[in-house]
Amino acid sequence: xxxxxxxxxxxxxxxxxxxxxxxxxxxxxxxxxxxxxxxxxxxxxxxxxxxxxxxxxxxxxxxxxxxxxxxxxxxxxxxxxxxxxxxxxxxxxxxxxxxxxxxxxxxxxxxxxxxxxxxxxxxxxxxxxxxxxxxxxxxxxxxxxxxxxxxxxxxxxxxxxxxxxxxxxxxxxxxxxxxxxxxxxxxxxxxxxxxxxxxxxxxxxxxxxxxxxxxxxxxxxxxxxxxxxxxxxxxxxxxxxxxxxxxxxxxxxxxxxxxxxxxxxxxxxxxxxxxxxxxxxxxxxxxxxxxxxxxxxxxxxxxxxxxxxxxxxxxxxxxxxxxxxxxxxxxxxxxxxxxxxxxxxxxxxxxxxxxxxxxxxxxxxxxxxxxxxxxxxxxxxxxxxxxxxxxxxxxxxxxxxxxxxxxxxxx
Length: 411
What we know:
Layout: E1 3-6, E2 42-47, E3 53-58, H1 61-77, H2 83-86, H3 90-100, H4 105-123, H5 133-143, H6 149-168, H7 195-204, H8 207-219, H9 223-227, E4 234-235, E5 240-243, E6 246-248, E7 256-258, E8 267-270, H10 273-285, E9 291-295, E10 303-307, H11 321-341, H12 355-367, H13 372-379, H14 384-395, H15 402-410
Antiparallel strand pairs: 1-2, 2-3, 4-5, 5-8, 6-7, 9-10
Helix pairs in contact: 3-4, 4-6, 7-8, 7-11, 8-10, 8-12, 13-14
C-alpha cells in the first residue's frame, strides 16, 4: 500500500506533546518531529513486489499524493518498476540484457563488440529514459561517418534490442529507435574470380593447403566449415563431404568447434574427381592427427574432445584466423607470379579472400543453369532471398532482348 506521511510532524503525538508553533490542522494535533524543517516534508512509503521498503520525498503534498497513486496503480497492475532501476545507466542495463539473452556463439561475440566499440561510448553513462529519438538520430549520423551501412546494422540491432528490453521491463515507455531511418546499404555486385586466377591460387598453395584451396573452390564451403572438417566428414568412395560444424576463431581465446552458421548450413556436398584426388594425396602427405579442442556444437553440452581435423596449421593445431591471413597473402603473391609467368594480364583482385572461391563456385553453378534454390542449398544460405540478392546479376541474360520479344508477341 502506497501511503503519504508528514515527516515534519509526529503521526501519533501524546497528550503531553506541545503543538507545533508553525503549522496547524483542523483535523489533528500537529506536533513537530525531530526532522521538522529538514528536507522535503512529504514522504511516500510503500513496499515493492519483493517486500522491500521504499521511500520518496516531496516538497508539496499534492505531488506526494500523485506519486502515491501512481505507485499503487503500478503495483495493482503488476507493472511496478524499482525507481533505482530506472536510474540505472545504459551500460549496466545492456550488460544484464546481453549476458542473459540467448544468442548463437558467434552472434554473442559480435554483439559484445558492437556495444563496446560503438554504443557505450555515446550512451553508456546515460539512463535509458534519458535517451531520446533525436539522440539516436545524431548517433546514426555520427556512426555513419565511420561505418559502412551494412556494418552499422550490428550496433544498431544491439541498441534497438536493448531499448526494446527496457520497454518490456517498464523502464521506458517507448523505444526511441523506432522511426529512425538508417542509410541504405549499397551492395557491390559480386565479381567472381576468373577461372585462370582460381587455377593459379590452387597451384600456388603450399602442399599443406593445396587440397584445402581446391576443395573450397569446388564445393563453396565457408572458411570455418572448411577448417572445421574432420577426417570422417570426407568419404572418397561416395565422393561426399558432410558439413555439420565449423571452426570458430574468437577475438580472444583459442579456436573451437561450433554449429554451422544456420540450420540450412547443415548439408552434404559432392566432391569433384580432382578434389577427391587432392584429398587422397593430402591424407598421404599429412595423415590426420588428433588434436584436443573444445566442442560447442551443442550449446547445452560444451566439452573438450579429440578431433581428427583434416586441415591443420604448420604447428599441427587448428588454423587460426590471424595465421591464415598471412598464409593466404603468400598464396596470392605466388599466384600473381604464376599468372605473370603464364603471360596472363590477370591478377588476383586486391582484397580477395578465401571467401571469393565460394563466390566463384556459385558463379560456375549459375553459368551452367543452376536454379536459385539449388545454389541456396549447395551454399547453405538460410533463405533463397540471400542467394538472389548476392548473385541476381549473374542470372541476367548477357543481352537485353526484351524489345524483340515484345515485337514478336504483338506481331
